[in-house]
Write a structure and sequence with these properties.
By secondary structure, the chain is mainly β. Helix content is 11%, strand content 30%.
């Protein structure tokens, strides 16, 4: 098995997929990991592929043919992977969520934890989830210790959450 590091590069993307790419370019880029599936909806599309049990989704939300966000999903309880999802050298799914968020604050990024299961870093446009129905280790607040997904969007991706700015 080949070791892969998927490096989050907010607000640009996650190589080899970048925001603003066409749907066809995203399919081509994600083909390096397998046979991507394209799901088309009435106003959006997504391209999904699994890289060593890490699901990668390139979302085309506002413009059906342009990548507006990239989301990566943890493989699930009991599943192992040699693929790491890195944010500034930290393994997003292997490092406790509180440590990831503390590092972001130390870097000077504003972290919004008003939705405890869905913290975001506006402006940088990183969104995390800690939701799972699986039996996983939890912190004192009952939240999973680790993130279960991470999303990279552009600088304005979370503006809807902050209509008056942040």
């Amino acid at each position: 098995m080949v070791h892969v590091d998927l490096v989050l590069d907010p607000p640009r993307g996650v190589a080899p997929v970048f925001l603003g790419m066409t749907l066809d370019d995203a399919v081509s880029a994600l083909s390096a990991f397998g046979d991507p599936e394209v799901v088309r909806r009435s106003t959006s599309s997504l391209v999904a592929v699994t890289c060593d049990k890490i699901e990668i989704q390139a979302l085309c939300e506002e413009h059906e043919n342009e990548v507006s966000a990239i989301e990566l999903w943890w493989p699930g309880e009991g599943k192992t992977t040699t693929t790491r999802v890195l944010l500034e050298g930290q393994d997003v799914f292997g490092t406790p969520a509180k440590d990831i968020l503390r590092h972001a604050e130390e870097r000077g990024w504003r972290v919004d934890e008003s939705e405890a299961e869905r913290p975001v870093i506006p402006g940088v446009s990183l969104g995390f989830t800690r939701e799972t129905s699986q039996e996983v280790p939890r912190d004192d607040d009952g939240l999973p210790l680790h993130f279960t997904s991470v999303l990279v969007g552009d600088e304005h991706y979370y503006d809807y959450r902050y209509p008056d700015g942040f």
